[in-house]
Amino acid sequence: MSGGNFPAWRLVGVVAVGGAAGSLTRYAVETLLPTSQYRWPWATFLVNMVGAFAIGVVVGALAQRELRGQTAPPWFRPLAVTGYLGGLTTFSTYMVEVFTRLDSGEPLAYLTGITYLFVTTLGGIGLVVFGLTLVERRFPPVDTADIEEAEEA
Question: Which residues, other chains included, contact 128 with Cβ-Cβ below 8 Å and sequence gap of 6+?
């Protein structure tokens, strides 16, 4: 878990700071968008969709940097992905929200639970792919033959 000259104990601190910031952001969104028990859980849906898109962008950007021979600081991915986005998004709350709607015995809540399950899962996957694709199109992979030709010239 350590990167280069960056000690592992500092990475743990970086993850903790990122996780705290992500969790506080999620709490703020949940406070601004309260949800009744059987309605659409907008706060969790929003943070999970934003997080899915953001992780696609961040992971895609880091991969593109590596293809160009550039590296991000060793603390960046633990801070941004594991920490902040890990704290922002929430799979466990999503599962509880689906379950409570399916277990409610109310037809509308049941329909909401099924819809929420599929829309969140497919939407999250779609937004990760969209984030990755957006970065790849914005910063297409470098052809190493072009680099070698430029160095020879």
Answer: 52, 53, 55, 56
Bridge partners (DSSP) listed for residue 6: 3
Contact 139, 61 (CB under 8 A): yes
List all residues 6 or more positions away from 89 whose beta carbon is below 8 Å from its beta carbon.
22, 26, 47, 48, 51, 52
Summarize pLDDT for 116-149 with one digit per residue, the tens: 999 999 999 999 999 999 999 998 766 655 556 6
Chain centroid, CA 39 distance in Å:
24
Rg, C-alpha atoms of the chain: 20
18 in Cβ contact with 88 (< 8 Å): no
